[in-house]
Amino acid sequence: MRNAIIALIAIITPATAGAQPERYELGRKLKLFEIEWDKQTEAVGRKRALEVMPKVMQQFFTFQFGEAGRTLDTARFALLDKDPPSNAERWIAPIHLTPGSRLIDMDAKELPITLAQFYKPDATKPEKVAFQVSWPNEKLQDVAVAKFPTKTSIALPKALAKPDAAEDVALEYTVELDGKPATSQSVIISRVANLKERLAQLKKAAAAPSEPPTIESATLTERVDLLEKLADGQTLETDYPAAKLLLEAEAISAAGVGKAYFTADKPAQFWMSVPTGKGKQTALRVLVPKGLDAKKPVPVVVALHGAGGSENLFFEGYGNGQIVKECEKRGWILIAPRSALAFAGGGPPVGDILDALAKRYPIDPALAFIVGHSMGAVQTIDAVQAYPKRFAAAAALGGGGRVRKPDLFKTLPVFVGVGGKDFALGGSKALYKALVDGGATAATFREYESIEHMVIVRAALPDVFALFDKLAQPAK
User: Fold this and answer.
1) Is the dihedral of CA 334, 455, 392, 325 positive or negative?
2) For position 475, what pLDDT does the model report?
3) pLDDT number for residue 340
4) 157 SS3 class
5) DSSP for 243-300, written as a single string
6) What does 8-40 look like in DSSP terms, one character per residue?
7) Whether pTM exceeds 0.85
């Protein structure tokens, strides 16, 4: 399995950078599927959906993004009580809106938009269909659509009158059938007063040398790059609250990159970057829970995403951000680093990341847990061997890994979870066998019946956290 996936990654590596709009739309469809999955508790509906899902990964890895979107929609429909979906539902499903830019100046009067179909539906256009867009508390605007794609512009709400104004707004687009809303989605549009000048100031601040480099200086560099891409009209893999991120960057710049901005007394989710070696930095997303106390260290969970994903996948995908909810209710810190498209040796430097964040947050060094999915599972096994005795437990979900130093796994609790319909089944079984053959006494293997690759994380997380909870409980 591992060699096959490495070959696929080698193929898709040059293409993923140019496939961000497709990644965004696939991410949105995956989230819709996850939301519907939570609503559907009947085993029959879930089984129907799982029979469809195995196609998604092959379609993604072979650049059939539209077909992957179709499969996700089909799986979502399979979850519904009404099966099969109506002609109108099938026709509406692939429609999506792309704004000309997701970060615009506050003085902009219009916003270019494109309405298109992600794939060609197996359905005919309904007779009475209409399209509308709206801002919060603003009148709906009709959009004339004669064919797909349709490019047009919509009027923007009145600008905020402050020179330092910045806001993140949900632009909602609705498809109506017979005068009634049939479906609606939203896209985050960020409006910033004096955008060009403020970006230029941030870019200048980010270019100033910082010795030694800090989390703030690394974050400022990464943040400027992100904001410039959004202002340039690029579609990234998720909706970013760009106005919030810009204001945060300005606060970092105003205070100076030598002063700590990211501290334990600011509970929230953060995008940040951490210096991880000479001239290097790693982007990550972090959950800082409420109520942290410097005198009371808490467990930390490091989550490594799969190939083609990013630091956002554990926060917004994988069970609609299930791991975030699990950490929030326990008051644990969650760290999701961005990983390059590589397996062995290509994982993020999690040891350096933990060292850096331990200077800001009360992390219990004896209770550092690591979990990875797919490529992240391989990297999880590598991390345990690269940073001996750093982790209290590890979980490899939907993926294998090479056990080069079996002694490090002899007493370490390792959970290997995989779906019965997962293409990684063989690799996960091989990993567990290697652990046991190497003398591991605390390794656990579980195969989840009918579960496939994209659903394994949400299926296995309850068992993963049951293991983490057992280890985190105070000794009696």
Assistant:
1) positive
2) 54
3) 78
4) coil
5) HHHHHHHHHHHHH-TTS--S-TT--EEEEEEEE-STT-EEEEEEEE-TT-BTTB-EEE
6) HHHHHHHHHGGGHHHHHHHHHHHHHHHHHHHH-
7) yes
Classify residue 308 by its DSSP letter: T
Structure tokens at 356: 């850096």
Mean pLDDT for back-to-back runs of 10 residues, the chain (476 residues): 36 47 92 92 88 90 94 93 84 96 96 96 94 91 94 92 94 93 94 98 94 96 97 95 98 96 97 92 97 96 94 95 97 95 71 97 98 97 96 98 97 98 96 98 97 96 98 76
> Given the DSSP bridges, would you call strands 298-304 and 333-337 parallel, antiparallel or unpaired?
parallel
Which DSSP state fits 62? T
**Where are the alpha helices (H) located in 110-214, listed in sequence order?**
195-207
Edge to edge, the sheet with strand 268-275 lists 268-275, 281-288, 333-337, 298-304, 363-373, 393-397, 414-419, 443-448
pLDDT of residue 16: 45
Q: In the chain, what are the domains?
A: 2-85 (no CATH), 95-192 (2.60.40.10), 262-472 (3.40.50.1820)
Calpha distance 255→169 (Å, rounded): 27
List of residues 6+ apart from 429 with CB closer than 8 A: 418, 445
Judge contact between 146 and 132, C-beta under 8 A. Answer: no
